[in-house]
Amino acid sequence: MANLRDIRNRISSIQNTQQITKAMKMVAAAKLRKAQQRMTETRPYSKKMGEVVSRLVSAQQEIQNDLLRKPEEIRKVLLIVVGSDRGLCGGFNNNLFRKVESTISDQYAGFHKNGDLDVITIGKKASGYFKKRNYNVVQSYPGFFDNLNYEETSAIMKYATDNFVEENYDKVLIAFNEFKTVISQNRLVDEVLPLQTDFIEDTDQSSSETDYIYEPDPESILDKLLPVHLNMQLWRAVLESNASEQGARMAAMDNATENAKELEQDLKLEYNQARQSAITTEISEIVSGAAALEDN
Hints:
By secondary structure, the chain is of the alpha/beta class. Helices cover about 60% and strands about 15% of the residues. It contains seven helices and five strands, in the order αβααβαβαββαα.
C-alpha cells in the first residue's frame, strides 16, 4: 500500500486538475452562448439566400454564369476541412477526420492517389492531421478561430471559386461539424460546387408558381448573389463548427471534472485505510512494548 505522503500528493494533484477542468468548462460554456447566437442568426439568412438563388436559376434556365457550369468530367477536387485550433474537446476532431478519410476512401481514392485531390485546412488540428498523412494541403489556416471573421472566410471561398471558374477544380467540398446539441454533432461533407439548386424545401407552394419581375435582370442579380451565397456556405460551416467545438469541450471538461471527483473519493478512501492501518500498527507496537516491559 502506498505511503500517506504519496496519497496526499496525488489527492492534491487531482484537486488542482479538477479546478482547471471546471474553469475550462465555464469558459467553454460562455463561448458556446456567443457562438450559438451567431450560428442561429446566420442559419435563416443562409437558407433564404439559397432559396433565392435556386429560384432564380430554376426560373431562368438560359442564364449564363461561370459558377453555374456543370463539368462533363470530374478531373480535380478541392476539399475544405474545418477543424479546431485547440484540443481537449473529446472526439470532435478525430470523428470528423475519420468521416473525411472514409469519404475520400469511398469516393475519391483515385483522385488522392493520382494527386488530383487538394485540401484546404482550417484550424491547427486539421492542418497538423492532414499534413502528417501526406495529403496535398494547398492552404492551411492555423489559429483561424482566434480572430474569427467573415472577410478571411470569404478569401478562402474566393480562392475556391476562382479556381473553379478557371477549371482548375471541377468539384469543391466542405467538411465540418454541424451543431446538433451541446453533446452531439453531425459530421458533414457537403458539395458546394458545382452549385446545387435542388435543395430548397419551400413550404409555400404558391411562391414557387409566382412569376417574379426582376430588376435590373436575373443575370445581373445572380452575378452579385452567387459569390455571396457561396461565401455564406463556408461562413455557416465555420460558425457551426465553432459552436460544436465549444459544446464538445464543455461536455469533455464536465466529464473530466466528474471523473476527477470519483478518483479523489477513491484516493481519500485509500488514504483513510492506510492511515487506519498505520495507527493500528502503532498501537500494536506500543502494547507489545508495554507487555515486554512488564515481563522484565
